[in-house]
Amino acid sequence: MTLPTSSLFPLSTPLPLLMASPQAKGDEYHKFRESAKEHWDSRRSYFQKAATAYSKGELEYAAYLSDQGKIQTKLARETDERASQNIFKARNKGFENVITIDLHEQHVKQAMRL
């Protein structure tokens, strides 16, 4: 059995990953979150397509799509983490009291890791 041709396996084009600047502005945070949302949406699409391909018996293609979904998962998590760090630095750069931090706009899991 041969693998499907590369035309059936389009290269995934990951969305550009934004790099956090040392002093973040609120607008950058939203760009990171939007990029992460697009990665999560892409992940969901790859996994749905993988399930469909698997149910049709197209096992190699399903495995390929699943791998692409895993890549999108990794990219989404990395981008979410950048957003978290970005907004945390922006909102807390002026605090001298290390006990007081601003966790607004943080996702729960990310806030717990800060």
Automatic annotation (TrEMBL):
Signal peptide: none annotated. Pfam families: DUF1771 (PF08590). Residues 28-93 form the DUF1771 domain. InterPro entries: At5g58720-like, DUF1771, Smr_dom_sf. This is SMR domain-containing protein At5g58720 isoform X13. It comes from Gossypium hirsutum (Upland cotton).
